[in-house]
Specification:
- By secondary structure, the protein is of the alpha+beta class.
- It has one domain (6-126): Ribulose 1,5 Bisphosphate Carboxylase/Oxygenase (2-Layer Sandwich).
- The chain has four helices and six strands.
Length: 127
């Protein structure tokens, strides 16, 4: 589910993102060094981080690392708890990846979601 949260980001955060391709505005890459800045915005705006992927920047190209992560909503978990947990888990994962990969040009994509309406939550909980 694509959501246009990118347009809501303040310029001082958005400036660090790079689209994977110009035709894919929802597929934006972020430098790992800016993960905390982005996660603070998610936490402040009650967004949950669903998951994402890691990339390396080689010259001017991005190469997928085939390393990713996801954070699922637990059954009966309140949205406010899920959004907090997902952002915290994102930062823990990024810390581990940063140490494991030990490469300066690690980038990531992220799928984030604002609180869904009741119908959307029913679908999520039914999974």
């Amino acid at each position: 589910m694509a959501e246009d949260w990118l347009s809501l980001l303040p310029d001082e955060v958005r400036q660090f993102g790079e689209p994977i391709e110009p035709d894919l505005p929802f597929e934006t890459l972020w430098p790992l060094s800016k993960a905390e800045l982005l996660s603070n915005w998610f936490a402040s705006n009650n967004y949950a981080v669903i998951g994402g992927d890691f990339y390396f920047k080689k010259n001017s190209d991005f190469v997928h690392s085939y390393e990713g992560w996801r954070c699922d909503l637990n059954k009966n978990e309140m949205w406010v708890n899920y959004s907090s947990r997902s952002v915290a888990e994102m930062l823990v994962k990024f810390s581990k990846v940063s140490i494991a990969l030990a490469k300066p040009d690690v980038w990531f994509t992220v799928v984030a979601l604002a609180k869904p309406n009741a119908k959307q939550l029913a679908i999520i909980y039914a999974r």
